[in-house]
């Protein structure tokens, strides 16, 4: 058969052997031993005693040292009750003996206790009464028994009474209340005592508890201990047994309990708290638990302690036990029996149940060691070693079997052993014989002795052990019995070991998620495919459970779906081959939001404060970081849940509650995964009413009408009414009066009639309800309604300094203000210029407000050389009082502003005529003008020219002898007796004589040719004719109508299709421009309209003209654009300052009519008042301006001139008889527009 031997390294050796059976006698060996017990009936009497041996053992029992007349049956020595004896006769100490021909084995002594089944005496129903906050003990007092009953406190519905820190069951079975609440009142507190051995539950009569209200509950109580009594107690515990230390305090609020060891950390002792912290429990106590302990019970009113001395002793326990063996005659036997205990046990020896006598010189007994020399067949027996101390005894049976048999090997020959690398190989060679035969092992390599290898050892039973096996250890091994020819061979095969590559890890999974646990491994290919076994908490995950919850993937990975709390635990993956196995463990920890807290409880109210306590819910492996306590006031409709937060290690919160309110509470837990659902909402808690604890704030007067006092205040929150019948008590009295007037109103405001205007009153508002008045407020000062001021400032004076004036006045008497003086208003009015010729389009008035504390104010922004008047009023919240008498004043003369405009005409290439308009702000009487101009050159060092004009009525000035190739900058200033004002600045240049165009582009059609050109920037308009000659036979020169250079476009018509022409323009006596063209052939009207030649030509011409237009516009813009056409000050100029002449220049005149003898100059306008020129505006040549800055005509000054001649007549701003509009667009007009 196959035998498996599992080593600590989980390496299994397979052994193939035949079955050899040796028939021989065997001393008795006990297989079942009795235990002490308590019997409540004859059926409970059962003491076990069973043994094996050859021949079959017989049994006998000894009670209290006397042999019982008892006979076993069916080879069993179990003792049971028999006959008609009463149960009490069976009580005593028992020991069982098992005998056969080779010896006697015996059990240790056990105690049998007999009792009648526990019963309850007749009881009276108990009734207890206690005040709120007091401590109470409900006694159980179960019937006495040698077996300790389990106590269950339940109600009449057989539901357990809720246990907490406040309500606890003690070790004595009593129910302890640290403090009682009203809801503890009930009449069905029932103690149920369960005797498990007696199979009995005894319910006592229900106890009634009535809790009465008490006013002392608000004061609280200092902790005291109900159990244990006194400051100190001592406890003796036996090693391996359980021990419970108890600490049950009373007090209000409920005390908390803290346990500690006086010398070491409590966790090192193996202790843990139970029963809501009231017990310190040791399940299997060790020597480490020995020492001093302390229990600390505390609340907000104090603390109390109790100390415990724990002494740990031990019943005897075996350290070394002697084995049962076969011996051959003449050998020396040593039986070593060592036991420990506290106190140290004594060891005694017995042979076949009889104490050892010191009569055999071959035998020596020293403590726990028995030595027997030169054994003979008669020494075969069962030896008993017994260790005893005050706590008990233990007994060990071991036999010595002296026998003589021939040597033989029991293990099979030719067995093949397989082991994996690194494992332990065990090659068996079990020899039998007496005396015991000696065996030796040899390998194929005879040159090396096996036992010389440190990895090899031979056991006493002949087995060869080879540790840390390697592939080189494979081969044939031979086992022989010395001094004989008996031997067997064993074959060893060392295979690769199974290795776990990736095992399951410790993972955290959010509840409801999935988890994957890995199990990746390698194994020797010569082995059968391994078995993969998954376990959860040591229990196999069977294939039948692989379904929706578990999925085993092909690579060994285990998938767990929809992970819940029940899936939490330790998971292990074991890979099992025929030879070895490898195990790896991991875990699944389910994390989730905490469960809602439970068991919300409230302490008694004290000064409107109470403590809310709760029991935390399950944290689901993620510690609670905080609790959210929500409080809702329900008496008032605006009540909402208000949150308070405490740290996760605190399970109570002291709350301040408002009187005359109804509250409910709920608590939520928070951890790193989120917030739990709220706990169940507590029952409603109502607070008692009381008088108001606050008074209204912000009491004030909001009076607006004379003769009334309006008292206003902020209403108190309804939650602060503190009772029913809430009102406001409003009190008022005039300052310096003694009698208060009172009234009661439900809400603000309150109106007091019949008061004087703006009188001072003391006011106060007090909160009251049906229980009385709230605190008294401090009176505040307010005033009745304001009226209009009665007086205006007096003694007004004005000091003028240029464009500002200092106004001074005498303040009004405060009694005439009839309110809070907010300030004064200064009303100013400009009457006009001192010259008297000004005509204003709108009246200039404005008001300056001044603070009431001032007696002077500086008024700025006055115009020079003007007449003003002012008056003043007083104003308060009600409004303004009467105006003061009007006070006139005037401002001095100043320098004038810049002239309103500056325009130019250019009669010739060396002449300019300047036209301007007087300043819009003369600031006095003009006495003339000063003109400065200077030629603009690169060197910037040309000398300036100055012209002084002494006649203020002059508005134009001609200049001659100018350089036609230069530009000039002009500065024109007005003058008064106060000096010169800022200038108006312009740049300008004269216009040059015009010439016909030379850069002409042509577009040829069937019967016409279109000519276009770009007029020169600084050139005057010039008239010319286009001559053309047909190149056909008999052709003559013909001439077009008169054309102007400013037209920029002309269409020469009346030509013959398909004909060559010569075009010519002359200037003076020489040819200025010529070209040859060929008109297109005449085509019939065929096909589509859009394919006709004339249409295509027209479209091409339009596109070309548009391109030229864009290019020229871009060039024009790049040169700077036009100069400005209008000054900002124009709109402000008075009509008296405008020049009398208001002319506009005409349009282009027809070429057949008189041409204009003068044209405008090429100028750039600069800002008024600037001493430097503005940005240059390019070389525009054709813009003039009206007085208001608008264009004069469209292109004034560019009228037609006689063919081949320039204008030389007198200058005229008006050109009559404009020519007909040109056929094409005017490029000059486009270029001259302001950018």
UniProtKB/TrEMBL annotation:
Subcellular location: Cell membrane; Cell projection, Growth cone
Region (Disordered): 1125-1162, 1189-1235
Membrane topology: Single-pass type I membrane protein
GO cellular component: growth cone; plasma membrane
Pfam families: Bravo_FIGEY, fn3, I-set, Ig_3
Alphabetic keyword roster: Cell adhesion, Cell membrane, Cell projection, Disulfide bond, Glycoprotein, Immunoglobulin domain, Membrane, Repeat, Signal, Transmembrane, Transmembrane helix
GO biological process: cell-cell adhesion
Residue span, Ig-like domain: 28-114, 118-208, 223-311, 316-401, 406-495, 496-589
Biased composition (Basic and acidic residues): 1125-1144
UniProt domain Fibronectin type-III: residue ranges: 596-690, 695-787, 789-894, 898-994, 996-1088
Main location, first listed in the record: membrane
Transmembrane segments: 1093-1115
Function summary: Neural cell adhesion molecule involved in the dynamics of cell adhesion and in the generation of transmembrane signals at tyrosine kinase receptors. During brain development, critical in multiple processes, including neuronal migration, axonal growth and fasciculation, and synaptogenesis. In the mature brain, plays a role in the dynamics of neuronal structure and function, including synaptic plasticity.
Family to which this protein belongs: Belongs to the immunoglobulin superfamily. L1/neurofascin/NgCAM family.
Entry protein name: Neural cell adhesion molecule L1
Organism placement in taxonomy: Eukaryota, Metazoa, Chordata, Craniata, Vertebrata
